[in-house]
Design brief:
The chain has one domain: 2,3-Dihydroxybiphenyl 1,2-Dioxygenase, domain 1. The relative contact order is 0.18. The chain is built from two helices and eight strands, in the order E-H-E-E-E-E-H-E-E-E. The protein is α+β, with helices and mostly antiparallel strands and about 140 residues long. The chain is globular. Strand 3 and strand 4 form a beta hairpin. Helices cover about 15% and strands about 40% of the residues. The protein starts with a strand and ends in a 21-residue tail after the last strand.
């Protein structure tokens, strides 16, 4: 089973967690500093929120799959259909290890096709020159 992912930017993580927990009648599956996600059964949705960016804006969209083979097959199909992908990568993002590929729609909306392969202790594996973590969940 695959499910859609919706990743939103929020200004107040506590308020967002309270709202979305009540909206979908479920508590977050994961909560870390500046980050929370829900694995909602009905409707099948992976909801992710990132604190700190302009609230009420889209961070990215995605399709979560069950296997890395599904990610590889999706990337091959997308590329064969003429869409520019990032290729398939193993990465750390959103406090998880993942196999993923990215595409961007004509208006700039980012889509991630991925499978979570494990948990991680950090938001991202990218470090910028000043020592701060780079933005997570963006095509590389």
């Amino acid at each position: 089973m695959s499910r859609l992912q919706l990743a939103l930017n929020v200004t107040d993580l506590d308020a967002a967690v309270d709202f979305y927990s009540r909206l979908f009648a479920t508590e977050p599956a994961k909560r870390k500093p500046g980050y929370a996600n829900w694995e909602i059964a009905d409707p099948p949705l992976k909801l992710v929120v990132f604190e700190g960016a302009e609230g009420g804006t889209l961070n990215h969209l995605g399709v979560e799959t069950e296997t890395a083979a599904e990610v590889t097959a999706a990337e091959a199909r997308l590329a064969a259909d003429g869409l520019e992908t990032t290729g398939v990568d193993d990465t750390v993002c959103c406090y998880a290890t993942k196999v993923e590929t990215w595409v961007t729609d004509p208006d700039g909306a980012k889509w991630e096709w991925y499978v979570k392969t494990g948990d991680a202790d950090r938001l991202t594996n990218l470090i910028v020159s000043d020592g701060d973590a780079a933005s997570c969940c963006a095509p590389g």
